[in-house]
């Protein structure tokens, strides 16, 4: 549905040229919620404004539904933008107009008959939960209510695409949660493709199907959200996850004290609620200790990740009273990691249960 091919964008000053985008390729499918995440100055806002061509690329092509709009005329762009709604970080409402009139504004510009426009606006305000606030002014609304007005206004012309430019970054956590739930509802009920930019991995985790990580004008990592969260490859992605409280490497604080094998288990779906470790003990006679772990949801998918130490289970002596030097030697041996055969058995055990295994220290 949305294709960006080889997009470059440079801004020129007297002193130098700023290369905001440096060859971006993106394909966003119809009906997706697609997130673009990066730090301030990474190129997020410039990239999202390429989709409705509020910014024209220095190089590259912008295709919507297979049609190239890179060099489209003003009249063609006006028609395109009626099919692309936009939600802004700071709401951009008309302070002198009521909630209803703010939503009516794009319909008036589009030439929609008055009765039809009022019906459409009231329907949208009910959709976003503001049917009792239609005659209020923006100054009488909370931040979350203002953003709901902004969303209703963006939906007024029945767009196929909704662009969200840091739509929740000015909101508190509870209000952010409610706005994300509303966007999810809009995506599911109306089938609208949503493209959002954010600096928050929590926003991506709760709403998006796919994510692209941008750094210094380049897409450094892209994929479905579950895979990017559980198997981050680029250092920027890992840093963003760590900043959001998802630190996959905190176990290393214990590294100097660990002499057993260390593995990372990554799992999602129904496996996330199965008693895997108790099966590990009973079936393979291995003992474990948990160094780090987390469980949660990525959109609607339960997931978990755990770092554990594993050692050979202590064999029960035939004579419990026998505390010989031989049994003590066995204890000393097993405290220095698993044999290669045991590691192979361990991997097979978890892979049969659709759990990814990574040996961090053998």
From TrEMBL:
<dbReference type="InterPro" id="IPR003593">
    <property type="entry name" value="AAA+_ATPase"/>
</dbReference>
<dbReference type="InterPro" id="IPR027417">
    <property type="entry name" value="P-loop_NTPase"/>
</dbReference>
<feature type="domain" description="ABC transporter">
    <location>
        <begin position="2"/>
        <end position="241"/>
    </location>
</feature>
<protein>
    <submittedName>
        <fullName>Methionine ABC transporter ATP-binding protein</fullName>
    </submittedName>
</protein>
<keyword id="KW-0472">Membrane</keyword>
<dbReference type="Pfam" id="PF00005">
    <property type="entry name" value="ABC_tran"/>
</dbReference>
<keyword id="KW-0029">Amino-acid transport</keyword>
<dbReference type="GO" id="GO:0098796">
    <property type="term" value="C:membrane protein complex"/>
</dbReference>
<dbReference type="InterPro" id="IPR003439">
    <property type="entry name" value="ABC_transporter-like_ATP-bd"/>
</dbReference>
<dbReference type="GO" id="GO:0022857">
    <property type="term" value="F:transmembrane transporter activity"/>
</dbReference>
<dbReference type="GO" id="GO:0016887">
    <property type="term" value="F:ATP hydrolysis activity"/>
</dbReference>
<keyword id="KW-0547">Nucleotide-binding</keyword>
<keyword id="KW-0067">ATP-binding</keyword>
<keyword id="KW-0812">Transmembrane</keyword>
<dbReference type="GO" id="GO:0006865">
    <property type="term" value="P:amino acid transport"/>
</dbReference>
<dbReference type="InterPro" id="IPR050086">
    <property type="entry name" value="MetN_ABC_transporter-like"/>
</dbReference>
<dbReference type="Pfam" id="PF09383">
    <property type="entry name" value="NIL"/>
</dbReference>
<dbReference type="InterPro" id="IPR045865">
    <property type="entry name" value="ACT-like_dom_sf"/>
</dbReference>
<dbReference type="GO" id="GO:0046677">
    <property type="term" value="P:response to antibiotic"/>
</dbReference>
<dbReference type="InterPro" id="IPR017871">
    <property type="entry name" value="ABC_transporter-like_CS"/>
</dbReference>
<keyword id="KW-1278">Translocase</keyword>
<keyword id="KW-1133">Transmembrane helix</keyword>
<keyword id="KW-0046">Antibiotic resistance</keyword>
<dbReference type="GO" id="GO:0005524">
    <property type="term" value="F:ATP binding"/>
</dbReference>
<dbReference type="InterPro" id="IPR018449">
    <property type="entry name" value="NIL_domain"/>
</dbReference>
<keyword id="KW-0813">Transport</keyword>
<dbReference type="InterPro" id="IPR041701">
    <property type="entry name" value="MetN_ABC"/>
</dbReference>
<comment type="similarity">
    <text>Belongs to the ABC transporter superfamily. Macrolide exporter (TC 3.A.1.122) family.</text>
</comment>
<keyword id="KW-1003">Cell membrane</keyword>
